[in-house]
Records
---
Amino acid sequence: MTSPVVKRPFERLILSALESLPVAAFYAKTRGWPFVIAWIHRLTGIFMVVYIWFHILTLSSLAIPSEYDAKMKYFGFVFISFLEWLLAVPVIFHALNGGRLILYEIFATRNDESMIRWVFGLAVTYVLLLGLLMIMGNQSVSPIFFWLTSLIFSVSPGYLVASKIWNTASSLAWKLQRISGVFLLIIIPAHLLFMHLQPAIGHESNVVITRMQSKFIKFVDLTLVIAVLYHAGYGLMSILKDYLKFRLLQNGLTILIFLMMAVFGWIGIRLTLTL
Amino acid sequence: MNKRLRIDSTLECDLLIIGSGGAGLRCAVEVLESRPQSRIIAITKGLHPQKSHTSTAQGGLAAVDPKDPADKIIYHMFDTWKGSDCTADQNVVRKICQAAWEQILWLENRGMHFSRDQTGKLSKRTFGGHTLNFGESSAYRAVFEADRTGKGIMDTCWGESLKRNISFINQAIAVELLFKDDQCVGCIVFKQKEGEFIRILSRATVLATGGSGQVYKVTTNCRQNTGDGLALILQAGLPVMDPEAVQFHPTGIVGPGILASETLRSVGGILRNKDMDAFMEHYAPKMKELAPRDLVSRAIASEIRNGKGILNPDHNVEHIWIDLRHLSDAVHEKQIPEVTGFFRKYLNLDPKEELCPVHPSNHYQMGGIPTNVFGEVQDSTQKTVFGLYAVGECASASFHGFNRLGTNSILELITMGKFAGDRILAYLKDTPEKFPEAEGDISVARFSRYLESRGGDNIGQIRDEMRTLMTESVGIFRTDEGISKAIDVLKILRHRADHTALSAKSLRMNQELVQHWELDNLLAVSMVIAQAALYRRESRGAHFREDFPERKDEFNYHTLISMEQFGTVEFGSRDIDMSIYNEGGQFYDKFDVIERKY
Amino acid sequence: MSRENPQTQVFMINLKIRRFDPDENRSWIQKYTLEASRIMRFVDLLRKINDEQDPTLAWVSSCEHGQCGTCSMKVNGKPLLACELLVENAIYYFRTDTFYIEPLNVAPVIRDLIVDFTKAYDRVDQVKPYIIKPVLPRSEGDEFPITPQELERYVNATRCINCFCCAAACISSHETFLGPNAMLNSIVRVMDPREQEKEQRLKILYGYQGVCRCHSSRACSFVCPKEIDVAHFIALAKEGRITKLKS
Ligand SMILES: Cc1cc2nc3c(=O)[nH]c(=O)nc-3n(C[C@H](O)[C@H](O)[C@H](O)COP(=O)(O)OP(=O)(O)OC[C@H]3O[C@@H](n4cnc5c(N)ncnc54)[C@H](O)[C@@H]3O)c2cc1C
Ligand code: HEM
Ligand code: HEM
Ligand code: SF4
Ligand code: F3S
Ligand code: FES
């Protein structure tokens, strides 16, 4: 049931444009827009899983700084930078939409249609802002200050969600998915933002390594990698269960996903701890 | 005989329920609650028991709350008696009315979601024909679950039987009752999904197949209501009682005939004709819109016949209006949302702003398989047939006589279901656990005939012609001439049906095959309705003969009619039970054969 | 009164129906073209095909006014009740006069548009759609008091007719998820103050085939012909508002 919300002219324009999309419009008509959004959420989730594997492998070459720098030199190219900027689209969409889902499911926010508008509005704002920062280049900020703030802003909603659902009868695994999700809600967009305050912050091995020598930054990275890998692993498993008929196959693949995530987790954690 | 057709296997059980509607399952649960080890099989023609017709009952069920300061059981008994046009059996009326509240609590305690009043108790509302003090003022007697009371009963009875491990066989039709030494020992069932016949041997069998609304063109009944139960009984050589007593609901929605519940009138909806005249005050000055159904139906039909109807362009049907525009938003939203939703959905109009077109629609069969007060089926000499029970709309213990009051039917389901269950419990205890073999060959032969017959006719068309015929000639207004003609045409239709080839000869889920069988049932039921209507040369309750518009004392009995050969009927009669009157207790005079004026 | 037949609009409708013959295990799409008036329902169209063109086309309905949930099927991809869809509204909604009709994919097809609901219902049966252990009323011969406010919290969930439209629309699968309607049936009894047996219920509701399989895609609420906000109730369960395990 969609509550009737008055549509402004420009929204009607956008909607009629959306309604001419081939596949999405079909599903919007037969299952509703939230269903289409659930699909986008799923696709962006899968995309990020692949990205995170790639990302951790790239980062693992920080152990040999010259190798890292060699890889990173591509990021100077305008086109690659453009891709890097585009990366923010799925990331921020998934993050904000995940936030919306959590609001819907755990905080009884039933004005979903306006929440969807907020998701799109904020996503566009964020992506434009990020682009602006990337063009401007040289902002400087204290990493400790930045990460301390981000962490506080991430842990508190995480705590809030945890305290709300902890005593429900839902499975622990499911609860952790929501808690990790809301924890990532701030910290992932912040991570992306931070890495583009200055080109060097994310791309030059010596800058990265220096920063990561801080115990505090190490700690932040550890929570980040664990939360992301847990969340992504559960997400993948949850998707698989929608498509695999046989219990045995489901269990087999669940174990496989768990192992994959453990391997990447091990790579990521070892890197953080040894740098 | 067709080689593919044979009875594949045999199942045995203690109790076989034919028809998993509210009545059938209430009976099953009664047995299971006292005797949990009973093996019960319940079959339904539909996709699932929950899809039975009981689910669609809207308004409510009547029951006098013993804690109610104003209402009394005797008033409910009186209303039912008067409503029935003095043709109900008083022993049945008494038994059901007395058991009513207990059965409401039975449902409530098992999770039915009745609507509540502010104190958390069951809400009650008034309905057509419900009065205090023998007709003085309206009684608030119907408990309800918003406008889906039947669904509540269905869900509760289905849920309780599921909980108690009943075996359901869905999409299966009972095609032949099995008898051994005058005792019913089970039935032959055709499983539509598999295209197989099975034999179910049972120690007790309950017929609860519901109504026969599909006999008429415009009906509120569901598609499965093809009078199979009556046809099965006729096929077995047993009689049917009062088939001519067919109720037409005054307010069917123009077009599909969907029921616009009594509730619309009880919350204040007003019937208006072409000139916007609220005409009910001319027909029933006291009760007006809330007069009994047959009166209101005839009033509407008369208005239309007198040129006061409005023609609907889309369905080419003449109708009158029901006016709901003056009702408050609260009433629209809380009390009648589902019903007014029908107008929105099926006619694309808004009842808050626009007038709604309605006309009478076939609704209920008061007659049926004759039973005693315990639901035991009787033969033409009123001897009980061992092992065979009938409850619900297909049965007639005669709680409704010749006209049913709104809300009395689903009350009958749960009370008669319980009574029959109690009887069956005693029967199961007393009789030895053995299953006499019985063959059963009529149905296989019948199906073979369908598969082998040749000819270019179409089952659907014959059915439509039959339904139009019955509506026009044996409907709200009946005459000797019209009925006689209808009887002749029914014979022709039956002949045509016999010469109709099936397009596909498959047995699995061949709906044309099943529809052919159903058509034969419909024709048989139509025939007994017409014959009984012709025979009863008077008007009584819902049976209205234009050529004999008065009720006559010489017809103070129930019609019994049997038909072993299509078209050849035999009549009998059963006395109306007047025990309340005869006992001469307080108010006994109210239960005399009285005039029915509202 | 004017007795001549007033004009009403007539449409030419194309129905492309997915058919299945179990005898030959063959599936194909068959096209029918027919005339239809403005407020005919889709069940009327199918009946018209049976009566005038092809008696072998198998489909099923019962109440034919949206009360029983028998006639559910997909029209142009949307799971709905064929007895509730008027020709005029369908043309307006889908902006076409060609309709692709197929059975719901919630259980194996028996023939043409008829699905084996007995199998689909198995998932509903698993949540025990009845009161397992009712509290006894305070005194014999009494109803258990429930205030209208209390009832209001879950009364909408009791309106489900198990048509399985929501299950057909859901992003999650029938193999690992009992389905939105099964959840609803379960949630009703968790919220019902008369149910004493909570432990068993919660185990099913929050089990591996329970609410955790829902991705809040809200297609259930979108298609539900009874306009029940199914997703709302599932979310209530996730939030734990309908009950807490430990207080
Ligand atoms: C729209 C509408 C509204 C109504 N509202 C009210 C109301 O408010 N109050 C009231 O008191 N009454 C009401 N009634 C009447 C009441 O609903 C019915 O009389 C009652 O539900 C009949 O119940 P039943 O159990 O006898 O049969 P049903 O519920 O019709 O069940 C019959 C069962 O038998 C099965 N069956 C049929 N033939 C066969 C066969 N050959 N083999 C196997 N199975 C078979 C069917 O599949 C079904 O499962 C209403 C009726 C209608 C049409
Ligand atoms: C940034 C903040 C994030 C938030 C708020 C968030 C939130 C969520 C939520 C609430 C879900 C559950 C949706 C459902 O019910 O299925 C989910 C699913 C998922 N998430 Fe995230 N997530 C975030 C980041 C990530 C990241 C970084 C990844 C991958 C590396 C990821 C991958 C997935 C996947 C694969 C799913 C499963 C999708 C599905 O089942 O359809 N998420 N996310
Ligand atoms: C193009 C944009 C990105 C850049 C340049 C970038 C860069 C980096 C760098 C330099 C680190 C090292 C740790 C640190 O300096 O604090 C890091 C860590 C990390 N990043 Fe990114 N990142 C980007 C996007 C992302 C995205 C989109 C995600 C999530 C989906 C992500 C997830 C992580 C995680 C989990 C770690 C911790 C790894 C570990 O501790 O082993 N990053 N990133
Ligand atoms: S929730 Fe709605 S769509 Fe789903 S089965 Fe129930 S009535 Fe049908
Ligand atoms: S469609 Fe399915 S995913 Fe959840 S919100 Fe409804 S159950
Ligand atoms: S036939 Fe009952 S819902 Fe359509």
---
Amino acid sequence: MGKLYGFVFYLGGVYCFYIQLIAFKMLNSATETSLRKIIHCDCDCFFAAIEMRDDPLLRGRPMAVGGSSDKRGVISTCNYEARAYGVHSAMATAHAKKLCPDLLVVPHNMAKYRLAAQQIRDIFYDYTDAVEPVSLDEAYLDVSASSACQGSATLIAKEIMARVHAEVGITLSAGVAGNKFLAKIGSDWNKPNGLCVILPQQVADFVVELPVAKINGVGKVTAEKLQRLGVQRCGDLQAYTVFELVELFGAFGQRLYKLCRGEDDRPVKVSRQRKSLSVEHTYPEDKDSLSQCLQQLPALFAQLNQRLEGLEGSYLVTKQFVKFKFSDFQTTTVECVVAGSIRLSVYHDLFQQAFERGAGLGVRLLGLGVRFQVSHDSYGEQLPLFPYDLTLHG
Amino acid sequence: MKFVISRDALLKPLNLVAGVVERRHTLPILSNVMLVLEGNQLSITGTDLEVELVGRVALEQMPAAGGEITVPARKLADICKSLPDGSDIEFTVADDRVTVRAGRSRFSLSAIAAADFPNVEQSPGSQQFVVKQGDLKRLIDRTSFAMAQQDVRYYLNGMLWEVNAGHLRMVATDGHRLAMCTLEAPIDAAEQMQVILPRKGVIELSRLLINEDQEVEVVIGSNHIRATTADFTFTSKLVDGKFPDYDRVLPKQSTKAIFGSRDDLRQAFSRTAILSNEKYRGVRLLLSDGSLKIIANNPEQEEAEEIVNVDYAGEALEIGFNVSYLLDVLAVLSGDTVKLSLSDANSSALLEESEQGDSRYVVMPMRL
């Protein structure tokens, strides 16, 4: 840094300020990315797992989900019993049956898979808003700012795995690391139903041994080329300068240079459509009167407004609601339909109605919220052209 | 090295070659174009290591000696563009400087030796064919809009070229819609070949195909493709990946066939698009005997409605689409009539000029 500033002072005023600004920004983004905690979740043989969950006869034997062999169908997903025979996704069903004559192929039931995927996604959203779904059965979570599980990404991953098993009835594997690249490798490391945590201090040793074929984007041709160069592991690749890699692999060379060192600063791209937004507070002492509750309203309202501003008007508010938790731990929610921006007077009325429901009980928690127009009604959902391929290449 | 060239002869190839050059790069030399002088032929080369483009132009005045050097691409192109029409430009190379003179203007540009300029690696060609530039351009223009942009499925950020004996087919898809166009051409091919051209390569190649009636020679190798015209040689790396099986998503048994005026439909869709959601662009199509009603709503609760007469008799259907996807197709189709084939609200639509047309477009609906 010192060197750069020395150079900067040599230049004129405005320009100097500009460069300082860039330097500051670089520093800033560097600290932002170095502290990230990313989880990559990947369901184990998703379609097959759902079918096995719903039909015990499919368990403990080789089975697959896909198109039937007489219609030139292709395997989408198969279970681990079938994989032992060499069956894999994207294989022609007719060929798969040759490898494994006992293979039972069941047709797709996309509606069912979509429902399960939604349930799993809802579990993710309990831990962070920063969820980037890659396909139905795969997503990246940025839990850097999450306070769940004392902020431990490892514990969050464990809890997600347990909850998906209990609530959806299938298993998923998770990778925890400081970036998307390593998290994705982690989720594949101990599959199925496995967890792999790559701590920042382990990254250097981990990547040295990592086979280059594990890098996303290294396909057959690139892998063969690397093989010819005698490069098998990322450690071998580290011997090359960025210039050499760019010469050899074009634009991808720059990325390879970073990846083989375990570096990847791609952000988790959030695509969530919120259904609601709320703020709430539990008080050390119960509020025993309506006026005591109303005293808290302006602060909560300001907090809610601040959160709404963060969304930059990308959502349309359709309802305002309040949530009360009484001293007996019973919870009640009162809501009303509104249009346009939120109003304090509406919450005032809702507080009154909610307090009356307690029939004299003290209130330990107060919450304010809004519901948004559900995207399905207003915007619609674009259907994919290759629903099966999403899992094939995931 | 010293030579004189007219501004008008230099400008076109220089602009096209400079278009390949990235503004910022890890390697400073990649911001440069290489000028090579052999006899009275000047070749200009630009590369981003994925795509390489060589433009050739003949000098009117025979220079004293040949040579090679590299200079900043953007700056040189900007200088030539802003010089007056009809100027003669003189280039003089001395040490690490290139001096550009025209009339009373003089520019001294920093140069890097041509020896450091990288080549796009060549692999032996395994498939070769010659077609008219206009035919190749038509294939690209009819499909390139459907290519994905920065998709994690990197093999979609490009275009599939499928070479078979007697025909060349191009397919592009972003996972929501697909465009496909086929050219009958005298191609010898023992077996089918499928390669994926990167998005940038497709766009740059299309710009070179300016002389419709002249030929272009295409050579495809295991990891590169090269196209040569009289004035240019274009080389691009291929994308290392597997393109999805497009045949599986072509609707084959649509239950409803609708014929309508392409222009009427295009205008009705562009008007309804105004009041569709800016981000999601959903419109509802209500199909009934003889007419298609198109409705759009936006979050401000505004509404647009259009009714277009169509040639259709059968059961009614309500189906949603991203209006941009439909407009993209209607913009590249020609002919008065368009055929739209549908089945139900969750199945893809097929758009064609007619069954005999060379192009087919598949659009997945939106659930509205």
